[in-house]
Amino acid sequence: MASVCGGCIALMDAGVPITDVVGGISVGLVTETDDSDKITNHVVLTDILGSEDHFGDMDFKICGTEKGITGFQLDLKIKGLPFEIAKEAVSLNRKALLDILKIMSEELAEPRPDLNEHAPRIHQLQIDPEKIGALIGPGGRNIRRITEVSGAGIDINEDNSGKILVYSNNKLSMERAIEEIELSTAEIEVDKIYRGTVRGIKEFGVFVECLPGKEGLVHISELADFRVEKPEDICKMGDEMWVKCIETDDKGRIRLSRRIAMAEREGRTVEERPRRSSDQRSSQGGSRQGSRERRHGRENRDHRPRDRDTTV
Questions:
Q1: Which of 111, 170, 189, 296 is paired with 247 by a 20 to 30 Å CA distance?
Q2: Which long-range contacts (CB under 8 A, 24 or more apart) does 29-35 make?
Q3: Residues of the chain scoring pLDDT < 50
Q4: pTM beyond cutoff 0.70
């Protein structure tokens, strides 16, 4: 019965959300009988020792809370237990159990608010069933990566309901696995700021991966709040940068801004530049290269070296 009391306190100390404090106490019995085995005298013993259990006639273990009994076990070495003796045993057990529960509650009255960081845990997630493939990845590559980097186990329900179970033996591992799952199944949202990785550099801007397998374009005009001659002046492949999603069009193209993200993170106000409609982008798409060439031509003319007085 000490294991019941100690186990309950251990669970509460670990933050396991049990509903009430549970204790246990054992009651024994010593009897005197006549020649016909009828009990002529008896003594009920509360909280019996091993020797009393061995030489006695009964071991009546009862566990419970202040509200009632949660479990019991009765071992008898005599032919039967009179009802009056059973009532006496339960009554003495109840009195002793309430005293024990009071002592336990003085030490720890309820479970700690947070699960201990080293306690095993299971967490259930619900994702869009259509995102199961993205979570698994080609040949299971993505889900293997998540289990390797987090150390957690992941079980995907086979009924395609999108129910995910994550198993871990510590808090940090669980949090990392949940974060990776949410990133793998999330979509880039307008007005949210992401810490992404540069995956491609073009003369008109850079492509930044905000979520695993999901990237958008940071136009060269959105790289900084000053004129940028070429993207390589700001970043290189593999660099991390803060970006804000400022637009997604009906074709799924994502427009990002480092300029706005940096300003908002620094607490500065910044004016968002006008957004073009998808029709405008489509109509200008064919002449984009020519426009860039004409623009670079003008820039080259503007930056031609002028005659300078070199006299020392």
A1: 296
A2: 29/56, 29/57, 29/58, 29/60, 29/81, 29/85, 29/89, 30/55, 30/56, 30/57, 31/57, 31/78, 33/78
A3: 278-312
A4: no
